[in-house]
């Protein structure tokens, strides 16, 4: 269950000797700023791939040169179109006048490239063909929709598709292919209450642009804002806020305890990131094969 700022407010209040968070909006805002300081410090220390690595998909539009970058986009990890990996370059690489006026660069030829400019992703070569929409029929059993096409659809498990046209809207939207039992069928998840069979003129279109990126964190603006940290580590911003609270009250010993717990938590989350990346045993520190 994702934690909210309101959950952190309650935990901090209990540490400070109260059962509930304060009602004063200014005090709440001040404590929220402390939580944000802590989260920003944690998330600027490293790239925590198990909760900061995100994926979005999109569908090529014929001859469209650029696409919007994802929401809360921080840094790209990998971009693929139709399975081809695109290599990042710069806008200046396509501006000969700028290059010549700054430095002479050797000619570099890459098969697939992209650059980021004004919150857009520019692709080279510009994709010239959009995926074909595949007409399907749909049924669902116990939360699994089965799509059937008249001829081979070409999708594989893990593909993202846009399903549209079903009169029962629970079938429509961006979906991930779970299984491909045959060349003319595939399955995906829907609500088990969705009416079956579906009606309407239904199509499935491959979302053939796949973007993996590091998510940026945003400052919480209300008590209902979520926090990016996993639930297991929600004590980290609480400990930091506790340190800030006692520091403002000139209680140096208590403040030091809060900041020490924060630093310990920061170390543990970095250690967990390392363990997940490289398979290190949490008890022994030995790398697992």
Give an overview in words.
With 289 residues, this protein is of the alpha+beta class. Among the domains are: 5-49 and 218-278; 134-207, Elongation Factor Tu (Ef-tu), domain 3, CATH 2.40.30.20. Helix content is 29%, strand content 27%. It has 6 helices and 14 strands. It has a 7-stranded mixed beta sheet with strand order 1-14-3-4-5-6-2. A 7-stranded antiparallel beta sheet has the order 10-9-13-7-8-12-11, with no helix packed on it. Helix 2 (25-45) crosses helix 5. Residues 97-109 have low confidence and may be disordered.
Our measurement of the CA-to-CA distance between the termini, rounded to an integer number of angstroms, reads 32 Å
**Cα-atom Rg, whole angstroms?**
25 Å
Strand percent estimate: 25-35%
- Any low-confidence stretches, pLDDT <50, length ≥5? 97-109
Report the principal-axis shape: globular
Order of helices and strands: HHHEEEEHEEEEEEEEEEHH
Mean pLDDT: 91
Number of helices: 6
Biggest pleated-sheet summary: 7 strands, mixed
Structural class: alpha+beta
> Roughly what percent helix?
25-40%
A few lines on this structure:
The protein has 289 residues and is of the alpha+beta class. It contains 6 helices and 14 strands. Among the domains are: 5-49 and 218-278; 134-207, Elongation Factor Tu (Ef-tu), domain 3 (Beta Barrel), CATH 2.40.30.
């Amino acid at each position: 269950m994702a934690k909210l700022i309101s959950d952190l407010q309650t935990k901090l209040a209990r540490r400070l000797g109260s059962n509930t968070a304060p009602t004063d909006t200014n005090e709440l805002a001040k404590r929220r700023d402390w939580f944000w300081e802590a989260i920003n410090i944690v998330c600027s220390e490293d790239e925590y791939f198990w909760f900061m690595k995100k994926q979005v998909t999109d569908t090529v539009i014929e001859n469209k040169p650029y696409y919007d970058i994802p929401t809360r986009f921080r840094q790209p990890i990998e971009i693929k179109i139709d399975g081809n990996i695109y290599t990042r370059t710069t806008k200046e690489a396509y501006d000969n006048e700028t290059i010549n006026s700054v430095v002479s660069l050797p000619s570099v030829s890459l098969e697939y490239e992209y650059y980021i400019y004004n919150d857009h992703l520019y692709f080279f070569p510009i994709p010239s063909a959009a995926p074909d929409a595949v007409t399907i029929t749909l049924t669902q059993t116990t939360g699994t929709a089965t799509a059937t096409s008249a001829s081979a659809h070409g999708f594989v498990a893990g593909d993202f598709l846009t399903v549209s046209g079903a009169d029962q809207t629970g079938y429509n939207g961006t979906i991930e292919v779970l299984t491909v039992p045959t060349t003319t069928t595939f399955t995906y998840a829907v609500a088990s209450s969705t009416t079956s069979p579906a009606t309407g003129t239904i199509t499935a279109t491959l979302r053939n642009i796949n973007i993996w990126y590091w998510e940026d964190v945003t400052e919480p603006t209300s008590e209902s804002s979520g926090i990016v940290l996993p639930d297991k580590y929600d004590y980290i911003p609480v400990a930091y806020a506790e340190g800030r609270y006692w520091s403002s009250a000139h209680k140096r010993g208590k403040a030091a305890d809060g900041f020490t717990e924060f630093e310990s938590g920061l170390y543990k989350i970095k250690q967990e990131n390392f363990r997940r990346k490289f398979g290190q045993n949490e008890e022994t520190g030995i790398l697992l094969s």
